[in-house]
Write a structure and sequence with these properties.
The chain is α+β, with helices and mostly antiparallel strands. The chain is built from 23 helices and 26 strands.
Amino acid sequence: MSQKISSPSHSNSSSSSKHDSRQDSWEIIEGLRGGLSNVQEPENQAGYMLKKRKWPMKGWHKRFFYLDKGILKYAKCAADVEKGKLHGCIDVGLSVMAIKKKAKCIDLDAEENIYHLKIKSQELFDEWVSKLRHHRLYRQNEIAMFPHEKTLFHPHYPLTSSPTIPDSQSIRKRASLAKQSSFHSPVSFTSQAKVTAWLQSSDDMDRCTKELSVCEAQLLELNHLLRSMEVLHRTYSAPAINALQVPSCISAGSIRLHASNPNLSSVDLTNEKTYHETLDSPIDVSKLQEDFCRIVSHKSFHSTMKSALCMLTTEKERLKQMLEHDSCPAPSAQLMGLKNALASQDSCDGSRPLVHQASNESRASITESLSEFFDAQEVLLSASSSENEPSEDDSYISDISDNMSMENFSNEVENERLNTGCVENGGSQEQRRCCLPSPSPNTSNISLWNILKNNIGKDLSKVAMPVQLNEPLNTLQRLCEELEYSELLDKAAHTQDPFERMVYIATFAVSGYASSYYRAGGKPFNPVLGETYECDRPDKGFCFVAEQVSHHPPISACHAESKNFIFWQDVRWRNKFWGKSMEIVPVGKTHVVLPGFGDHYEWNKVTSCIHNILSGQRWIEHYGEISIKNSNSEKCQCKVTFIKAKYWSSSMNEVEGAVTDHKGKVVHKLFGKWHEGMYYGSPPSATCIWRMNPMPPDYEQYYGFTKFALELNELDPLTKALLPPTDSRLRLDQRLLEEGNVESAEVQKQRIEQLQRERRRVLEDNHMTHQPRFFQKSRDDTWVSNNTYWELRKDPGFSNFDCPVLW
């Protein structure tokens, strides 16, 4: 019997299309709703999945995952998980989870890291998604109920008892008692749950306690040695002290006379008699000196202190954020108990004079600057005593100290001279503004989640954002900001050695990221198609021009020239939101030519990631590898690595690099922090070649702009008369935001975006494409200057030039 098969109706086809669309897009997995619920304990799940790595070893790598009560652990194989050799551990309950069904991908945004997972089998994918949903709800419910001693990580660190270091267990016990008294009140999955999660990371705080105990023991030993040397210094004649030999364990470059640290140079002499009796000959001084140098120079001494400080700073900031963002109308007994517990521990601070208090100015400010770190590696020889004049026997140590001091001094003078932008031939620097007309607006009333929740995994450059989230600069001006430290290129142009030239080029590539350190809170305006920007800086010796040459995809091209260098790049960005973090992946190359040597350098940019994007405490990091090569010579090349921060590591914002010859042999080493400075050589004798300029006053209130950024959108009448009407400084919405008129800026922003859509529609209707005016495509599909901008500006002038109406 034949059966008639009807063709699918239009509605069915449409429904299928919508279903396919949903399969092709990211879906956010909802979490616990409505507070506590009875979630059954889930079964464990284990198996292999593919995990994506971006750097190093890019691509998908097979890893074994083990899911237990909301905690997802992974390692290379099952045996490694059993042995505790974990590659990572993810709290699924505190992560944003998104899935893409068609691609069989699972993304977990744990704020500090974004985990991209993939499963080949559809059956296994569905099984893992189901298990992760169940475990996530269970974990969130567990956090909301504040269970006893449920820890996220399980490393077993032996604790060293110390009467002066606060015990994390005592804090947890007091908070637990407070919890029992507050159990009758309803608990929602808000900041209280986050505080609970913080308390549950007990082993991490125990590890911090252990490391602080080690630090305290070492500092006390150093203090004991200093007191002993002070006693001997007062007891015996100065020549006996000054005749000591420099221990072989310390290089000559690290010996400096310095008494800048009052905690170490001030000595308690109450037990002077005891020390005098135990040390009866001047020979003991040399032994004391050796012991002191051995402790100070040991790598574990600094690494332990840095690690402990990193932990304290991170935990303090995490707790601060949790308490600040408490959505409850009144503090619960649970939170009050925690605050009281912490307050009682603070009262013990007086008995711990040698333990530094962590700075809370910024999450990323974990350690002191590198220059201060090197200054700490010094031998203190009772320099505070003014009674003993230096004898001829002091000459060896004094010469070393003077040489290093003069080297640093001359380096600082050079940096200061370059940073002031001195103009050759006696020219005077133009007076520029030092403040914006209005501070940045309040953005606390904007719900970013409502804007971004439907755009997981998508390119955010196509998503309309409220103008309050912008800063009064656009992407073209951001490209110009990379030339803030153009004096490094000038220095390279006057350096004969090709390997040292590469050092300056690499440092310049790093310096372009420095201004982003204080700018994680805002985004630049997106330039409209055909928008331009010029920056003529005779004080810095360069002139810069940029143009938005493409809208889909958005591509910005720029070109700068001086008598020493030529700089150009075309950059396109892919912005992706993963639930808590936003990744910015640049595509394109940066080029620098030094005409004096015929060098043509080119390099890539690294990935940037803005973390904690949904709260007020956003922070940015850059990670990946910059590869710099000279296309006109194979004599040398350079690789610079931006180290991705690890949660319990002090490697925040750290950069390492190496200049190698054509055989791959390292000629120069580079290291530093992209927001502080760069050094080359080997510590402690490394030379500082760049430091970030000091920030202007009240920079936090003015978008975190550097002094150079403050000047980029400045518009004086003389300059205005020379600009084309397409210049960014004439853009109304950006100017109104800078002046603090947010409502009018939003109206103008929408109007300008609508004008762009209309121009694009006209081009499409007439089968035309936009042709940039000042840039052209080269053979390798990159955009380069056609060298007409400055000529047209001069003659006939842009007032006599036919320009499109962009706003």
